[in-house]
Write a structure and sequence with these properties.
It is a single chain. This protein is about 25% helix and about 30% strand. Helix 1 packs across helix 4 and helix 3 packs across helix 4. The protein is globular, with a radius of gyration of 26 Å. It is of the alpha+beta class.
Length: about 400
Amino acid sequence: MSSNQDKEKLSKLAEKWRNGTITEEERIVFNTWYNSFDETGFTAEEEGTPADLGTAINERINKKLNIRFPKQINAKLKYSILAAALSLLVLGTTFFLYFNRFSSKISKNTSQLASVIQPGGNKATLTLANGEKISLTDTTNGEIAEQSGICVTKTADGQLVYTVKNSAAASSLKNTLQFNTIETPVGGQYQINLPDGTKVWLNAASSLKYPTQFAGNERKVELTGEGYFEVSKDKKRPFTVVTDQQQVRVLGTHFNVNAYKEEHVIKTTLLEGSVRVSKIYEPENQGSSKLLSPGQQASLKQASFDVNRVDIENVVAWKNGYFTFADEDLEVSMRKLSRWYNVDITYDGKFDNITFGGTISRSKSLSEVIKILELTRKMKFKIEGRRIIVMS
């Protein structure tokens, strides 16, 4: 921060941090300031007594903020800035030895291990109807297959596109369904443009089974994991998404389906248009199906639907490149990290009723995400290879 106004704002945030009254929005500002520091921390040579180390930190913060304390500065203001600095810079430094009751720690070795674990990216495997498997992660861009007059193309920005290349060949086999399956690994995502113009974004550890061309009077695909759909409008042919417990039926709309088995609940969220959700083995006219309007989410758990209004920006944040932790259970949040960074999560301690909020870019390395999460002071982390231990 360079301006006097910014410095004054920081000092107020520091005071709130010290008093425990900082809001989530203010915490994000604080996180941004914290992330602007280098990651070298303090060396062993700088340890000395707490007073000596406090002086060293004071000098570093002054230099970072371009602050020079006058001799008669208000003691409370100076303490606030130093308190905030200590709370933030203590992560990954030897200062933890003196203040471990009040701060969380990322050790130097942990930081190095976590920095090696990079975020996921555009990775997927395509299995053709004939059983041939194509790694979309490794294969070159351009046309990768042709099926009954349908051209399958991989683009440079992580998309799989189906287009009609030979209309005569496509029409002759229109009533013969051939199914492809695209699967994203842990740490992967991909976008598919289906033959009817429907766009599908697959989150990590997900799969989509679909026909190479839609025949007859319906369009049906099968989903595991999580997918965001922008369905091409076709009043004569409804579009159906089938999971292991429910189906979503639409004509043309935008919606998100989260059907990870480990979450024990299937969430269908409507952004625009309308969709009807029903249990997979029960006809829609049995009364348990639900018709959603934009902004509503249907949660299927223990054979019944619960419909609520939700923040749709939080629901589709993954598609737009962000993690959101909207007052959800800790284990739900940790599973998001597990799927994206391809790591295992274990727990050491009790974490009942621990929730937190916030938004973090999915492009950050694991070490950066961990630093931000530890600022909540609700947990600490230890990294062992590709295993994250969450500690109370």
